[in-house]
Amino acid sequence: MDYVNLPTIAALSDCVSIINMGDCKAVRVIHHNAQALISLHGAHLLSFQPTGQADLIWMSEDAIFDNKAAIRGGVPVCWPWFGRIAAPAHGFARTSEWTLAQHRENDRGVIIELTLQDSEPSRAIWPHKFFARLLIEIADTITLTLEVENTDSNPWTFSGALHTYLNVGDITQTTVTGMGPTYQDSLQQGKVCTGNEELMLTDTIDRVYTAPVSPIVLFDPVLDRHIEVRNQGDNSAVLWNPWQQGAKAMADMHDTGYQTMLCIESTLHAASLEQGKQLVPGEKHQLVTHLSIK
């Protein structure tokens, strides 16, 4: 994604500026250790490129930046639910306008903090009070921390995911380890299955791995790198690639887009909203994903 030379709307510091991505405002980070781009629409990480490396994050070349639709690729924030257990699918956080609360930088990197809280439109969808913040720590590695707090007077339950799309050279040559042996196969109505310790894709995958280890490691021989994914605050790791048939069915993904991406998601999975994680008033929970190249 070529965003470095796009016109600056506002320069916030030597490393941080605001630019337009279509109709979306985005935070651009240019630091000597890495570059990154985050849309305020959805608090959506669009790019993370350590110096000297190809982007770790995959973005669809047909992604829609209309400040309304969910953005295809990057790291969508799925909250206060994950999946189609309620409407809209994957919750409303990924299509809400977040606020840039603060940014800090030093010789190692840049920290961006985005926030979202309940509003009349959000309570019409999900009738609870909350405060959410996404902390994005950008250096030669990246850490995304979604912290949610119950600011209501009653308990509520939730699920969610940091729905990371990883950029790979060729999905048919990519292998993954550390996802664990047991998964629920969404292509077989959630059937519980057991798989191999190493995964290499030959077709569509949509799996909820229920006992992942840390790190999950993606080996990409084409780009000559191992990507380590370390998750916290999760109960599962979702792996997804729509393959050719799925890509063709999406207006915002090129027919060949599936060839260079794989989602490895830090997920709090639940079969329904009622079965999600409960937070009592004043309680917080953090969902984390950390990406690094080894």
UniProtKB/TrEMBL annotation:
<dbReference type="InterPro" id="IPR011013">
    <property type="entry name" value="Gal_mutarotase_sf_dom"/>
</dbReference>
<protein>
    <recommendedName>
        <fullName>Putative glucose-6-phosphate 1-epimerase</fullName>
        <ecNumber>5.1.3.15</ecNumber>
    </recommendedName>
</protein>
<dbReference type="InterPro" id="IPR008183">
    <property type="entry name" value="Aldose_1/G6P_1-epimerase"/>
</dbReference>
<dbReference type="InterPro" id="IPR014718">
    <property type="entry name" value="GH-type_carb-bd"/>
</dbReference>
<dbReference type="Pfam" id="PF01263">
    <property type="entry name" value="Aldose_epim"/>
</dbReference>
<keyword id="KW-0413">Isomerase</keyword>
<dbReference type="InterPro" id="IPR025532">
    <property type="entry name" value="G6P_1-epimerase"/>
</dbReference>
<comment type="similarity">
    <text>Belongs to the glucose-6-phosphate 1-epimerase family.</text>
</comment>
